[in-house]
Amino acid sequence: MRLAANDWAMLETAMALGAPPVAACELIRFRETAITPVLPADMVDLGLRGSPNFELLQLVQPDLILSSNYYTQIESRLSSIAPVLALPFYVAGDPPWPKAIAALHRLSAALGMPDTGALAAARAESTLSRLSNQLDAFRDRPTYIVDIGDARHFRAFGADSMFGDVLTRLGLPNAWTHPSRFAFSAPVPLERLAEVPQARIVTVSGIPVLARRALERSVLWTHLPAVREGRVLHLDAINPFGGTPAGLRFATLLADALARGTA
After folding, report:
1. What is the rounded distance in angstroms from the CA atom of residue 36 to the CA atom of residue 220?
2. Are residues 167 and 59 in the same domain?
3. Is residue 62 part of a domain?
4. pTM recorded for the entire structure
5. 212-242 residue pLDDT tens
6. Secondary structure class of 162 (helix, strand, coil)
7. Residue 3 β-bridge partners
8. CA dihedral 27, 16, 18, 115 (to 10 degrees)
């Protein structure tokens, strides 16, 4: 079956099932942001997720288009080209990991290979369980998961984000107990990181060069207890809007960083 994806979580889900789409959206950015899964070099780039190139989409002749609840405004246009499987991953207030697991089952059933979905789901849960067993020594301290936008603001990942949900499933308490705030504008002021002084800080996806230089000179940043006491860990790029592959990449990178450091 020829698949096309305009949603990154569905793209990752298809890849986890060994069913790479022939076309998907924003592939350059995906490869920079997600890193894994590695996409085929000949996958066709359909342009923006919210506004794909519909003419090109029609030309690739998909049998099924993979979308999500984020793109309901274009679903009728998509469905005029091919049947659409649109699944929810990120819903305010809901943990996304169970939805990502359910997506493995739903998509594999649609592709006529339900056993593949069951195996992928079991492997994902087993990997999380194995990593959780390695983290007993780190459960006594809550963790902020943040994406630094600039020297004064950050994005915060709560229980309704993939990172926050996976953190909880690893048995590590989340210091950010509010809803996730990870819009592009990085809306949370930096001083909020002082609210739980005993917490460690984990940054994801790197810190922009200008922001990093400004943070080094920032009195506010350098006086945060986690910064003063060396309880800051930096993780490589991870897709914040992904499926089980993004969740497992976060869990693996976090477990490795904790094992190497003292935070």
Report:
1. 34
2. no
3. yes
4. 0.95
5. 899 989 999 999 999 999 999 999 999 999 9
6. helix
7. 64
8. -150
